[in-house]
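Morning run. Coffee first, then this:
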Amino acid sequence: MSIKPILYENNVLKMIDQRLLPVEELWLEYTDYRAVAEAIKTMVVRGAPAIGVAAAFGAAFGAREIVAESYEAFSVEFEKVCAVLGATRPTAVNLFWALDRMKRCADAHRTLSLAGLKARLIGEAMEIAAEDLRLNRTLGKNGAELIPDNARVLTHCNAGALATGGYGTALGVIRAAVEAGKKVAVIADETRPWLQGARLTAWELQRDNIPVTLICDNMAGHLMSKGEIDCVIVGADRIAANGDTANKIGTYTVAVLAREHGLPFYVAAPISTIDLAIPDGSHIPIEERDRREVTHSGERQLAPEGVAVRNPAFDVTPARLITAIITERGVARGNYGVELKKLATKDK
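And here it is:
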């Protein structure tokens, strides 16, 4: 495992500023929930599972500030804290899953003293972080058997250690395959406009000495046509009940190309990313981000001043294009409407 991007030490949340990678490795410190919300919004931290972990600590920090005479009064203020955090990124369901879990934890321990309740919420955030790492390792093992020896695997965006509490989802599968003794080479799409593949995926795979080749987003089809890619594996920000999957913009394009060339297309994500309340992908909210992310690279202007811009951060890949969905509870194939529900309710 190359890195854990989120650390909690001495009552301080530490997060690596992913906006600066790979040039600079800067760790920022947080003790205030408003600052954590800003870090999520501005992509200091990104990746659905990592956002969930950060939000959990943000909620616990917000709880520390609340002064209340009763649980009912505390609950009102805590709901406001969670609303601030929930307004940061609309697509990643792990954000809302983590906040709901923190609210359920508070309610379950409502009879504690205020100090005791606040301490319990910190403990719950710590457990969410530790649990994410454990689940990613299990998810990785579940998916590793799908990766053949000597595979050349294409991935899009970053679904690695940096996008989670550590180890990764899509890259976790690749790491587990390597740990099992398989030879795996990764081909990483650059992933415009934030370049998570170029900046983050390439960086963390190099740290782990896993062979990685960087390509522009529009090169994937060419390499597929030349027989230089064996399968595709990506992460997810939200998976609808029918298996439709929202992931970083450009994922849908890769899935269409994979189908055209007869290549397996795998999605790797924890159960917390599955949203059974949403019937299909048309109900997944798609975040539109600032136009400047497209027109500029840092301070350098790339496009004419005043040009119209669209900047959706995610797209939805239809379930029919997905070969399998890999989770920590098993691998879903075929009828996702049935299989995902089974996995989501397994062991409950």
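DSSP finds eleven helices and 16 strands in the chain. Good start to the day.
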